[in-house]
Write a structure and sequence with these properties.
By secondary structure, the protein is mainly beta. The chain has one helix at residues 3-26, and strands spanning 52-59, 67-76, 88-97, 100-114, 117-127, 136-142, 149-152, 176-177, 184-188.
Length: 194
């Protein structure tokens, strides 16, 4: 095969690959406004996806070796799209160093997501930290693939017990890093009708 024929065949193969990719991209679903619907999101005629969600589990990175785990199972149903305070679910966390620390579980009372960022709040329903039950806490998550970040409302007070009258859906900037290889958080973005 001469050089010209080989070049023509490679060019044809490249064009076929590009055309196939364009065809599969063109076959993606679109919403009622004709905009592309991301993978994992329902297309028209299919059941509606939830309005927002924050799920997953991961450990935080601390150079001192703290064992800190956060897990989320927070959801806002499609029917409640206009009211983030109708979110349901739970989130949990634990923080131990040298065998000492505490854990807590909270019931979700608000979930707001935008793009890859979520803010969830809830009231602590169970904990081995004295005085924590009944306190509202808020957590912010940035879903950045394998480099997720997280922040929590008690970052400036030192403990959820010392947090007073925190409003719903309030968290801190996601300043903590997730420890490599320990998990992943997933944020489903809220798309309110504005």
């Amino acid at each position: 095969m001469n050089r010209r024929t080989r070049t023509a065949l490679l060019g044809s193969a490249l064009l076929l690959t590009v055309a196939a990719a364009a065809g599969s991209a063109g076959a993606s679903a679109s919403d009622e406004k004709g905009e592309a619907v991301p993978a994992g999101v329902s297309a028209p005629g299919e059941s509606k996806r939830e309005a927002a969600a924050l799920t997953g589990e991961a450990k935080l990175y601390r150079s001192a070796g703290d064992d800190i785990t956060f897990s989320f199972d927070a959801h806002l149903a499609a029917k409640d799209k206009a009211d983030p305070m109708k979110a349901t679910g739970t989130f949990e966390w634990s923080h131990y160093l040298n065998g000492e620390g505490a854990w807590a579980k909270a019931e979700v009372d608000c979930l707001l997501t935008g793009g890859k960022v979520a803010v969830v709040s809830g009231v602590i329903t169970d904990s081995d930290l004295p005085g924590a039950e009944g306190k509202r806490v808020g957590i912010t998550v940035h879903d950045a693939g394998r480099h997720d970040r997280l922040g929590y409302s008690w970052a400036s007070t030192g403990s959820p017990v010392e947090t007073k009258d925190l409003p719903k859906c309030v968290g801190s900037a996601p300043f903590e890093k997730v420890r490599k290889g320990t998990g992943d958080f997933t944020v489903v973005p809220w798309q309110p009708e504005l």
